[in-house]
Amino acid sequence: MHKIILASKSKVRKKILDENNIECKVFPSNADEELVKKSLIKENLSPELISKNLAELKANKVSLKFNKEIVIGADSVIDMNGELISKPKNRDEALKILKKLNGKTHNLISSVCISKNGSMIWHYTDKASLTMKNMTEAELQKYLSKITDEALYAYNVYQIEGEGKSLFLKIKGDEDTIMGLPIKKIKNYLEKL
What is the pLDDT of residue 166? Predict the structure, then answer.
């Protein structure tokens, strides 16, 4: 098996790989995602392409440092009727995001890119649809009070594998996609290598 490097500091993505017996080292890309995302939005790219380009950027950047190894980059975006919703920078922003999603359906798009020698060799993008319950501001505040800062800033405003599941009326799609790493497709690809 190749050495694998995860170009992300996401503990959830690392945990998914560990649970699937895929050994990896973690080496975050530290790419300026928000800057790149803004320029991709200006180019009118679809949310799927934005997610894919960000995953590719991270994987390629780290792959240049470890050129013989397989590097996995991943990115997830929340698409609310064409508007991309970024991770909150503080709890006030988190509440605003939850209010925006409240009672509505949005898409969560996750892309994964595998790079070697500084170039993408494989990628996959998947989409899940989530419908949030209609909640009062007090209920949203109560939810936020249960979430640690680390979880809030790392996984956007909801952790589907934890407290976040209680926010939703309906979830259509792969839970691994929602958690940011469509692992079945990754395993299929790695087995062919």
Answer: 87
